[in-house]
Specification:
Serine Threonine Protein Phosphatase 5, Tetratricopeptide repeat, about 50% helix
């Protein structure tokens, strides 16, 4: 029987300071006034903005998107309603606010500081642009049209105009290209460069460049259903070119700690209205049942099969431990993108090679040994392509679905490819998007949006996002 945990009031106060789903991010409100761009420095802004991004992604963003692709099951209270797609405008208010006010506004502040002092903070500016592109991409991929060019102006513009998702993608491309050029340029006159205050890559410009190229590949592969070429080969070639230009990425992660708990830990400790596997609820989720049927070696990492941490069948400590990291992008995701790109270009042999590299990289990522017999047997069974495009695309995306557990990117893959095949929890359709938050309806209503809808009439099912087939 599952028990709801009761926490001492003092502990609740500590946790709720940083609990993403219930409170503001821990730098929300900082640097919102454009007339005072020097209130804080890049050195102060960067670590907090990275942490706010990790809380926003690992909190509401991962929980909502994981429900859509059936990584998790809502079993009580709010998540019992979310399970059947009863998600209202007020439910996404905090996520929107954390992405805009606590995260992207601080990246914009860093970019503004650099623009006032050209060449003095190029490395910080480049990192801010990459993280802005990442956050903007994650945000537009669940809401579609967004305010961007006119956003972050404080009281100077309280009703920033929305731009189409296609225009947002153009902005993402520009942000990443500018960052790559800045980081590849000859060392300038930087008066300060990031070091340990960059919790993702420790200020290493080479790793940031590789990530920027990998993100460009991610956003190109999103466009394969709409680029007008056979099998999306035009976008696939662009994605492959970026991977070749950037090389293998190092896993991009924000590390939490036993004193600064990760968002899944906080959620289970304080809310605990989600189930994860058949060992816990007798039913399981689509992904847990799929992994169980395949004797997937990663199953014991994803789920607490022995009850060693939270309880039998709960989310495994890798994801739910107090110091569990939130991952923005992994090497194995890059390898899956490379595999899909090769498939779309007709390079089946290369697609299979990179597919197997991706699966093996995920084993390593989760602390397993790809050379062990169980891992080798898995790859030889499920990492094989047939030469039939649709069947092979299903294989690649299904393996990516398993490996990229809990990541918001999986919902993008499902909506653009239709894989894996999922049965809706309720009705006849899985949601295609988030509704716009209540605060946007009240304070920034748009008479019309470029997509043909408006932010007072959108639903979970309409209109489709720009890159959806």
């Amino acid at each position: 029987m599952r028990y709801i945990k009761i926490i001492a009031p003092a502990v609740i106060v500590i946790f709720m300071i940083t609990l993403q789903s219930c409170k503001k991010g821990f730098l929300e409100g900082v640097n919102n006034d454009p007339n005072y761009p020097y209130q804080v420095t890049d050195r102060v802004l960067l670590p907090g903005a990275e942490g706010n991004l990790a809380y926003a992604q690992g909190g509401d963003m991962e929980r909502f998107t994981s429900l859509m692709v059936q990584y998790i099951t809502g079993y009580s209270r709010q998540f019992a309603a979310y399970q059947v797609y009863t998600i209202n405008e007020s439910d996404v208010n905090n996520l929107w606010n954390n992405l805009y006010a606590a995260t992207m506004s601080n990246y914009k502040a860093m970019m503004d500081i650099s623009s006032k002092e050209p060449t003095f903070y190029n490395t910080y500016d480049a990192i801010a642009r990459i993280l802005m592109a990442y956050t903007l991409g994650m945000t537009t991929d669940v809401w579609g049209d967004l305010p961007y060019s006119e956003a972050f102006q404080g009281n100077l513009n309280l009703t920033p105009a929305y731009e189409s998702q296609q225009v947002i993608y153009d902005s993402i491309e520009e942000l990443l290209s500018t960052a790559i050029n800045e980081l590849n340029a000859e060392p300038g006159d930087d008066v300060d460069v990031p070091d340990a205050n960059d919790f993702i890559y420790g200020g290493d410009p080479t790793q940031w460049v590789a990530l920027a190229h990998a993100l460009k590949a991610r956003y190109y592969i999103h466009q394969t259903a709409i680029d007008g070429s056979a099998n999306g080969s035009a976008s696939a070639q662009k994605a492959l070119d970026e991977i070749n230009a950037g090389g293998d990425i190092a896993d991009a992660a924000y590390p939490f700690s036993s004193s600064q708990h990760g968002p899944w830990y906080q959620y289970i400790e304080q809310r605990d209205d989600i189930t994860y596997s058949a060992e816990e609820d007798g039913v399981g989720t689509t992904v847990s049942n799929l992994m169980s049927s395949r004797s997937d070696p990663r199953y014991g990492v994803y789920y607490d099969v022995n009850g060693d941490y939270w309880g039998v069948g709960y989310l495994g400590q890798f994801f739910s431990g107090d110091a569990a990291s939130v991952y923005l992008m992994t090497y194995f995701e890059e390898a899956f993108i490379e595999s899909e790109a090769n498939l779309r270009l007709g390079n089946t042999a290369d697609a299979q090679t990179t597919l197997q590299e991706a699966i093996n990289a995920s084993f390593t990522f989760y602390g397993l040994n790809p050379a062990d017999s169980a891992e080798q047997a898995y790859v030889s069974t499920y990492g094989v392509l047939t030469g039939d495009f649709n069947s092979d695309l299903k294989t690649i995306i299904t393996e990516k679905y398993i490996a990229n557990f809990l990541h918001p990117e999986t919902w993008v893959d499902f909506r653009r490819t239709g894989y894996p095949a999922l049965v809706p929890n309720s009705g006849d359709q899985i949601p295609l998007r988030f509704v716009y938050p209540q605060n946007e309806h009240l304070y920034n209503p748009q008479p019309s949006l470029p997509s043909g809808g408006n932010n007072t009439s959108s639903t979970l099912f309409s209109p489709k996002l720009w890159w959806e087939p």
